From TrEMBL:
<keyword id="KW-0560">Oxidoreductase</keyword>
<keyword id="KW-0472">Membrane</keyword>
<keyword id="KW-0812">Transmembrane</keyword>
<protein>
    <submittedName>
        <fullName>Short chain dehydrogenase reductase</fullName>
    </submittedName>
</protein>
<dbReference type="Pfam" id="PF00106">
    <property type="entry name" value="adh_short"/>
</dbReference>
<dbReference type="InterPro" id="IPR036291">
    <property type="entry name" value="NAD(P)-bd_dom_sf"/>
</dbReference>
<dbReference type="GO" id="GO:0016491">
    <property type="term" value="F:oxidoreductase activity"/>
</dbReference>
<dbReference type="InterPro" id="IPR002347">
    <property type="entry name" value="SDR_fam"/>
</dbReference>
<comment type="similarity">
    <text>Belongs to the short-chain dehydrogenases/reductases (SDR) family.</text>
</comment>
<feature type="transmembrane region" description="Helical">
    <location>
        <begin position="6"/>
        <end position="28"/>
    </location>
</feature>
<keyword id="KW-0521">NADP</keyword>
<keyword id="KW-1133">Transmembrane helix</keyword>
């Protein structure tokens, strides 16, 4: 048997080490950006101080852990009118805020209902919002984390329905309602919620060459259900960036559109994960108190126009995920926008006129 050629062996080892380094770099930058998670966990966030005096702010998902705490903070910062919306009754949140707020003048708190599984409910909700004299900010927190594959009455996997399609629909339908109060010189703010979860889900967001991309993602197998939350948030981030770009060009839409990442925390939404090893390990590295995430949301919905089209990670602007910045991601963003438009215009006649105002001139 001939002795090994150590030059060839060394070359093979060098290639394998290089491939391993590339793989590790890919995982740490695109699938598991641990630096981002550590940044959030270790952040010491001061309480927001920007006044909401004279403003009207709307919060969906206001009965949840993040939404209810954000609502309390906004009430303490002098908001004039606070609209709490959820599929569940927010009367308890309203009573708690009224009892505990430190604001000199207690806000007018209204409790609304919206079922994110239903296009009709979203339309009725937006119609009610358009009747307001002003709406200075909309914080769209409502979302679900579904561990079992189910379909909505509209025919979509529930994560895709609630976290993406209905959230996008609400954002579109609320655009005409977003009008600044007389005392507010800044543009109204429309804030969507994003998450770290879209990073580990990104390898599963490949698009078929033909057919509907949205249906491809919605028609997932039960085994892939843990990825659906991140996938739905990835779609929403594509949509939000495109919406921001289009409102910048369209006449009649002076609005700041941004995304906020509240970070990871144990909440009623994530508590079912406590029995799973991988989620426990991730949360051990990243989880922080819920109030920190709420601070991020409050800061986002009160932010200036310089955050338009951006992602707020804590109080800083953060870059978009690498997969969205590549040419393939830009093309996929357009595909997501076009398919979403086709789906929503077919099911929601009220949205047709909004899309017309956003079409390229």
């Amino acid at each position: 048997m001939a002795p090994p050629n150590w030059q060839i062996v060394s070359a093979i080892i060098a290639v394998l080490v290089s491939l391993l380094a590339v793989a590790v770099n890919y995982v740490l930058s695109e699938v598991f950006p641990w630096r981002m998670l550590r940044k959030q966990k270790n952040a010491k966030l001061a309480a927001p101080t920007k006044s909401f005096k004279g403003k009207t702010i709307l919060i969906t998902g206001a009965n949840g852990a993040f939404g209810s705490r954000a609502a309390k903070m906004i009430a303490d910062l002098g908001v004039e009118r606070l609209i709490l919306a959820d599929v569940r009754d927010c009367s308890g949140v309203k009573q708690q805020i009224e009892a505990e707020t430190t604001a000199t003048n207690k806000p007018d708190i209204q409790v609304w209902h919206v079922d994110m599984m239903s296009y009709q409910s979203c339309q009725e909700f937006a119609k009610k919002a358009r009747a307001l004299k002003s709406l200075d900010g909309a914080l769209l927190v409502a979302g679900i984390l579904s561990f079992k594959r189910q379909e909505s009455p509209e025919g979509w996997e529930t994560s895709i329905q609630v976290n993406y399609l209905s959230s996008a629909l609400l954002g579109l339908l609320l655009l005409p309602a977003l009008k600044a109060s007389p005392s507010n010189t800044e543009a109204p703010v429309l804030t969507f919620i994003t998450t770290f979860g879209l990073y580990p889900a990104s390898p599963f967001m490949g698009a078929p060459k033909t057919g509907s991309y949205l249906k491809h993602l919605s028609n997932n197998r039960e085994l892939m259900q843990p990825n659906q939350y991140g996938i739905s948030k990835g779609l929403l981030l594509y949509f939000t960036r495109e919406l921001a770009a289009r409102t910048s060009k369209a006449q009649g839409h002076r609005v700041t559109v941004n995304s906020a990442d509240p970070g990871a925390a144990w909440t009623p939404l994530t508590n079912p994960n406590r029995s799973m090893l991988v989620p426990r390990l991730i949360m051990a590295m990243s989880a922080r108190d819920v109030s920190s995430g709420a601070k991020v949301m409050v800061n986002a919905v009160s932010s200036s126009e310089e955050t338009h089209g951006g992602i707020l990670l804590d109080y800083d602007l953060w870059p978009y995920p690498p997969f969205m910045e590549r040419q393939s991601g830009r093309k996929l963003q357009q595909r997501v926008w076009d398919e979403t438009k086709s789906v929503l215009e077919k099911g929601v006649p009220d949205v047709v006129d909004v899309y017309k105002t956003l079409d390229d001139k």
